[in-house]
Amino acid sequence: MKELPYIVPSSQAEIQEAFAVHQTTYEFYYEVKTRSEFNRYCQWYYQTAAENRRELAKMRGEPNILSWFRR
User: What one-character DSSP code corresponds to residue 11?
Assistant: First the structure.
């Protein structure tokens, strides 16, 4: 343990500042990643919902074959 001060010759305040900068950077990039994933999910959701609406409108225009067998 005696060699540790030679490996990290910085003061305690500089070390704390470096870790604080690292933590802030990590949190920033995590937030960017999270928002990007959420935006990608929203785009997928809106696209899927639009496809489902088109399919539903198409199905409503088709004759209901199952009702022919329910008499």
Answer: -
